[in-house]
Design goal:
2 copies of one chain form a homodimer.
Chain A lengths: L1 H10 L3 E3 L11 E3 L1 H20 L4 E2 L5 E3 H7 L1 H4 L1 E6 L6 E3 H8 L10 H10 L17 E4 L3 E3 L7 E4 L4 H5 L2 H7 L6 E10 L14 E11 L15 E5 L1 H5 L6 E4 H6 L6 H16 L7 E5 L11 E9 L2 E12 L1 H10 L5 E15 L4 H8 L3 H14 L1 H10 L3 E5 L2 E5 L1 H4 L2 E12 L2 E8 H12 E6 L2 E6 L10 E5 L6 H14 L4 E3 L5 H10 L4 E5 L15 E6 L5 E5 L3 H10 L8
Parallel strand pairs in A: 3-10, 12-14, 24-25, 24-26
Antiparallel strand pairs in A: 1-2, 4-9, 5-6, 5-7, 8-9, 10-11, 11-21, 12-13, 14-15, 15-16, 16-21, 17-20, 18-19, 22-23, 26-27, 27-28
Helix pairs in contact in A: 2-17, 3-12, 5-6, 13-14, 14-15
């Protein structure tokens, strides 16, 4: 079945492995005319739903980023897969996959490399390509970022971003200004991301270059909550962690309102986006009966993530991950704040200024200098740091008369309280610096497209002949309308071309076809998912049997193959309404 | 002036140097919310004009491509700049730029490296960063492609594509099938391209990662010609090679029809796209008084290009290249055909089959074998090759009785005519294989955006206060409508939010702002080029002085600052028509 989809994808221009004339390279795909249009439409509907309708900002950052970014994000250290090379044929493999594919062990990815080495020896596992035993081969951590050099020499390494998100996080200080420092605010990005897979497989599901659509929502962890109204009644299948762990666990249909109220989804922001995602996936053709939201098990969670849910779809008998929805806390921004030394906070204005007591020091350098020599400045700095962290230490010293103790470079220094200049002042504060938390819905565009193609693939019989068609929703189909003259003669071709121009002017994606029998032309459009076809015939020209049909054309619906006569005058509007869902075919 | 644009670009979210918190890396820019929206709109209008309206196919290929592609395209060998490293501070420079910037010599790029080395010594040129003399430093060819490794190890090098075009050329055999082997057909692609500049400069004009919009039109060199109708009357400034070389040469205004008729632009396809490009650049805000089409001089032409024109714009006193329009012949496809061994042709069906005489050979191996031993098979192959190339050689041998002479590996072999099996047969052919020629309009998206910003930057005075605004055309402005409540109270805020929802549902890009005085909110929208602002006031609610104004809002035009009252009911349609140019503000 999935083979049929992949074959159709190549034959009709959805996607092919790239550079096939040179043998291709695993993990790189080119979207042909149909696929590029479908992908564009999928991206546009995502943009509309997650950026425009939500009032979020969209940005567009480079795909090549400098090393400092990935030092901070942790990708340089930990974005690895376990790699083993065959000593005989030199082919490269994921060691954990070799274990998973040939033993009963699941999730070998989470085991230490040493243990995987032992398992390979114990089970006498072999190279999948040539059958040579892999026991004793070293398993190394292979970083999945593509590395390159920026400019001549190797002084300035760069990496192809493994996710679009970092291009948002590093610009946070600037973005917060654009948002006028008002939380919550959201920033989206649609663009390429890269993962240098050791051995890519499964067509578009595990590729080295792909497109992500990510949203980073920055919230005040103590204040912001979403209004759930827009998605409260959206229904979706949920598969929470406890159900996955239970012997008889099952997937439960529920509304967003229900899963928030009963605590199935702990964070309301996550719940909100699950609702929006369910609506969006359905709108692009994903079958909701082959779809679920699965909560990460405790062992799957990244250490910084409070909760995480995946959107998953069933494709070819497997559940594949389509999107992730994570509550990431302040992990990302605090990492970049630490590494860059810049502020990654927003200043939250209070409704009314508040007066607070603040402990301060003003070290007496004329005493510290002679006492500590070259270390005096560092001691003073340590005192300033201590009073912010632990003012009680000074309060206690004031009462007891003991000196204040600080540590500098492993040495302990004692400073009499009167030399610290300790004081408590009343200050008026107009607001405070808040470290925003991040809620991250992250979507894979290629996988969404692949799933929609698979879920929309249909075979049926029309007029006694078998037919293949893609039941893609009209809003994302690569072409909205196919326009045919019954034959390219007697002026029907010219008239059809006029119709094409009109429809294109109205912003519709139109294709013209005058080649072969009408039935064959319908089949061609069915196969690429064109929802509507228009035929210009003798009746249109007023030269048919029924003079009343002059100025009308036949509109044929893909799925039902039903036909209606529609005046050319209102054709563009009718088709636009059909595409946008403001009209059903039965309404005509 | 350009500094004002760059400052505005950063302050208001058009573009900033990326990863500024880590000090940034030259040549990489992030488009903020305004810039990303503007870029998206620029790309969409290009897609509409050069893909959809022309009926061309759009594809979407990977940015990482394998080495074989660039061996064939020539980029691996020749996509170089002259690099010199400072022996003192280690900074990297373009050697030709150092010569051009510090001597009267122009076009140092075209000189041999040895000559540039001599010039550096002769003029005692120094490192621009630290002033150390560069005489005696080696100038090497630095390849401008970013290199990386695909998968573990270095067995499979990959490169970030230096142009989107190669992603189209390598898929030609498949694309020709999608086009049902009918010439001409066009394929477009909008996407990232990369150029590992030695020392990037000039903001968005010379960057390491950028976006291209390219069109590859495949034509039958003996048959296809465009219909010029759509662009015949388009006027543009032309600067042909002869005018550039003349002492008193000048730029001439002319229509596309004129430059085709008088031969200024030799190839009508090129002329057609110059016309389309002039229309498009004007539609995105480029000032046609600071724009020209400049023909390449003979010395600038790539060796395979028959003719090439650039679109250029004046920015900050310099003419910068915006786009190139080249007639590339069969260079690209034949290179890939040679390197891959695949067919890069289309089969052109004749209207009626034709009968032709074809000379063939059928070498008598029972004679050649004993005579030539191990070389017999090669001799037979050489005979087969010769009869295709030069059947007259066999005809002459038949008449004279002399043997036929072929050469194999430098050795000459003589074969009696009767052993060659030479014959002339009548064969019926239904068509022929045609090697398409390529016409390539290639646009830089970032430069188009940068030029539009520069050309639309305005300062004037409104109500006695100075104002900065971007006179961007409504069709590309990041935001089409700003919606304001006069104040956020008495229900005006809620009503304004309803208006926002309505306008967004109608597909308009809308922003809401209730912060600060109305005048300040206008200024904010002026600065980012929002063409229309809508204000909801007491009159809208029916609570103003004039009850007739109930249900209407004020619409204010950016450039004129004129205002009109428009019913909320027809607001979306009015604004959509204003954006699409179906209505002018004076029509309201």
């Amino acid at each position: 079945m999935i083979e049929d989809v992949v074959e159709l994808a190549k034959r009709r221009g959805f996607f092919v492995q790239s550079a096939g004339v040179y043998g291709g390279v695993s993990g790189f795909y080119t979207f042909g005319p149909q696929g590029a249009a479908l992908k564009q439409n999928v991206e546009d509907t995502w943009r509309d739903r997650f950026a425009i309708q939500e009032g979020n900002m969209e940005v567009d950052a480079p795909t090549v980023m400098p090393e400092a970014v990935f030092e901070a994000s942790g990708h340089l250290d930990t974005f690895d897969d376990m790699h083993v090379e065959c000593p005989e044929c030199g082919s490269n493999h994921r060691a954990d996959h070799i274990v998973e594919d040939n033993t009963d062990i699941e999730e070998a990815e989470s085991l230490p490399a040493a243990e995987v080495e032992e398992l390979i020896a114990e089970y006498e596992l072999v190279c999948p390509d040539c059958g040579t035993g892999l026991a004793g081969q070293v398993i190394d951590d292979f970083n999945l970022m593509f590395e390159t050099n920026i400019g001549p020499g190797s002084a300035s390494p760069g990496y192809l971003r493994p996710e679009t998100a970092q291009g948002i996080f590093v610009e946070f200080p600037q973005l917060a200004e654009y948002a006028r420092n008002q939380l919550p605010f959201g920033v989206t990005q649609i663009g390429r991301a890269y993962r240098n897979e050791i051995s890519p497989r499964k067509s578009l599901l595990r590729v080295r270059e792909f497109t992500q659509a990510e949203l980073e929502l920055f919230v005040d962890p103590e204040e912001d909550e979403p209004t759930l109204d827009r998605v409260r009644d959206v229904t979706a299948p949920f598969y929470p962690a406890d159900e996955q762990e239970a012997a008889d666990g099952e997937i439960r249909e529920a509304t967003i309102g229900e899963v928030v109220d009963d605590g199935t989804v702990a964070d309301p922001w996550i719940a909100y986006y699950l609702g929006a995602a369910a609506q969006w996936y359905e709108s692009i053709g994903v079958d909701m009966d082959r779809f679920r939201f699965r909560q990460h098990l405790a062992g799957e969670l990244a250490h910084y993530a409070a909760d995480c849910w995946d959107a998953e779809a069933e494709v070819d008998g497997d559940w594949i991950e389509l999107a992730g929805f994570a509550y990431r806390g302040d992990y990302d921004l605090s990492k970049h704040a630490d590494h860059s030394g810049e502020e990654f906070t927003v200043f939250k204005q209070y409704d009314d200024p508040v007066t607070v007591e603040r402990a301060t020091v003003d070290p007496d350098m004329s005493a510290l200098g002679p006492e500590f020599g070259g270390a005096a400045a560092d001691v003073a700095a340590a005192l300033e740091s201590l009073v912010e962290r632990d003012p009680d230490a000074f309060e206690a010293a004031s009462e007891s008369g003991d000196p204040v103790t600080v540590e500098v470079d492993g040495e302990t220094y004692e400073v009499p309280i009167e030399q610290t200049g300790y004081a408590v002042e009343e200050v008026t504060e107009s607001g405070e610096h808040v470290s925003p938390h991040v809620v991250e819905p992250s979507f894979g565009v290629d996988r969404a497209l692949y799933t929609a193609l698979d879920h929309c693939y249909r075979e049926d019989e029309v007029d006694g002949e078998s037919r293949t068609y893609l039941a893609l929703p009209a809003g994302v189909a690569p072409t909205t309308v196919g326009v045919f003259p019954l034959m390219d003669r007697d002026g029907m071709g010219d008239r059809a071309h006029e119709v094409v121009d009109d429809l294109r002017d109205a912003g519709l994606a139109v294709t013209y076809d005058d080649s072969g029998a009408i039935g064959r032309r319908y089949r061609r459009q069915d196969e690429v998912g064109t929802p509507f076809c228009v035929t210009v015939d003798y009746d249109t020209l007023g030269e048919g049997d029924d003079p009343e049909l002059e100025g009308t054309v036949t509109v044929r619906e893909r799925d039902s193959t039903d036909q209606r006569r529609v005046p050319v005058e209102s054709l563009a509007e009718t088709l636009r309404n059909l595409r946008d869902g403001a009209l059903t075919f039965d309404d005509i």
